[in-house]
Amino acid sequence: MGLLRKLLCVPVTAPFSGALWVTAQLAQAAEAEFYDPVRIRREIEALARAVDRGDLDEASYDAEEEVLMARLAEAARRGAP
User: Fold this and answer.
1) Residues near 48 by Cβ (< 8 Å), separated by ≥ 6?
2) pLDDT score of 55
3) Residue 40, exposed/middle/buried by CB under 10 A (0-12, 13-18, 19+)?
4) Do residues 70 and 44 both lie within one domain?
5) Which of 64, 26, 17 is nearest to 45 (CA)?
6) 51 shares a domain with 76
7) Which percentage of the chain shows pLDDT scores above 90?
8) With contact defined as beta carbons under 8 Å apart, do 26 and 70 qualify?
9) Nearest C-alpha neighbor of 32 from the set 69, 81, 70
10) Which domain range does residue 9 map to?
């Protein structure tokens, strides 16, 4: 009876399980990108260039750099390449 019930419920449950899988994959990809050390270093370099151009003041640079350094530390803790 369990197999029959599963077969009858597939049309109802399949879209939900598929949507959950897609959501999990998107979250995993976003997290990998967020904690990518190369990307974080590029963002720090972009901040430095913004300060050099005068687009960003030192206080803002320090605050944003602190956030990026925390992300970089978390990436290292997670074992990112």
Assistant:
1) 61
2) 94
3) buried
4) yes
5) 64
6) yes
7) 68
8) no
9) 81
10) 1-26
In this structure, the chain runs to a length of 81
DSSP for 5-59 reads: HHHHHHHHHHHHHHHHHHHHHHHHHHHHHHT-HHHHHHHHHHHHHHHHHTSS-HH
- Mean pLDDT of the 56-76 span: 95
Do 6 and 41 lie in one domain? The reply is no
Please check the confidence at residue 81 and state whether its pLDDT lies above 70.
no
Amino acid at 17: S
Q: What is the mean pLDDT of the chain?
A: 89
CA distances from 39 to 14, 33, 34, 43 (A): 36, 8, 8, 6
Query: What is the model's pTM?
Result: 0.72
| DSSP label at residue 64 | H
User: Do 64 and 39 share a domain, yes or no?
Assistant: yes
